[in-house]
Amino acid sequence: MPESAERKIIHVDMDAFFASVEQRDNPALRGKPVAVGYAAARGVVAAASYEARTFGVRSALPSVTALRRCPDLIFVPPRFDVYKAVSAQIHMIFADYTDLIQPLSLEEAYLDVTADRRGLATAWATAKHIRARILEETGLTASAGISYNKFLAKLASDQRKPNGQFAVTPDMGAAWVETLPVSRFHGVGPVTAAKMSQLGIDSGADLRAKPLDFLREHFGSSAEWYWHIARGIDERPVNPNRERKSSGSETTFDRDLLVDGEIEAGVLSQADDVWTWCERAQAFGRTVTVKVKYGDFQQITRSRSFPTLVDSQAALREASRALIRSVLPTPKGIRLVGVTVSNFEKQPGRVGDALPLFAEAVGA
């Protein structure tokens, strides 16, 4: 059995997080199809309630398509400050159970609960306790996957959504993976899934049947990852101080912009959004990048690296302004701009230490 089988990992995933916060805070939205975003011509759905998902409305779907699928769809503007505050509240709950917390986004995180801090006897019971606390303290539901590695825990959290949990034990992990479509696997996107299907790989069992040399021939450096997950193997630890490589923000304008001042104002607005995150996280980088996408979808970037950290809002704004001015005046309309800070300094890590994985039957 791999070393990771000794770990007890929970993947917690909030149910339709942004949309659920909106329905919680506005009772008039409850039970109705809700999309977080803007119903503008170039708008994109940031999140969708489960009522909207029954119509095929999903995040990243263009707003016009979402409305075509669900004419009664209610759009509400995003309130990211509220979502961040609720996420922080949820992470405070996590911290009562473990120091080993690895956030993936505002709504999901890995928790290593190998050390039984609360004396709950099993990882299964710990997940139930955490979900009950989240519901009691935030009014929101969460789903959870419990397993001996991160790959399986994340897969498991989808099994009983919404508001449920599922466990994958060491004795069932490899066989369970074989039953799943490869399109569900982390690291297998739509393009890769289509390529795999052309090669006769549609399930975990199909993937496991392929020798490593075959996978290397067709998937290069990703071959080892695919070979391991097809066998339920994932040795990655939960890393509470995973190095953040960048922080960025971008916006799509309602119309293509040609006026220098309007374009510059858009860039500075995105720089301010990025600075808000940097200041809150106390994470500062040395490289600033400005992204530009034109009306014909041509995309360019301009970057500058500094000898010292960009550790003030004024410095970030000035760097962003200089970069966007390097492509102005524009020969054609600009539809999108973005700002990213990268080249962060590494942060010191922490380690943790044993908790039985399960003492109850697997289920919701």
From TrEMBL:
Quaternary structure note: Monomer.
Note on how the cofactor is bound: Binds 2 magnesium ions per subunit.
A GO molecular-function descriptor: DNA-directed DNA polymerase activity
Name the UniProt record assigns to this protein: DNA polymerase IV
Ranges where the UmuC domain occurs: 9-189
Subcellular location: Cytoplasm
Listed GO biological process terms: DNA repair; DNA-templated DNA replication; error-prone translesion synthesis; SOS response
Sequence similarity: Belongs to the DNA polymerase type-Y family.
Active site positions, chain numbering: E108
Gene name for this UniProt entry: dinB
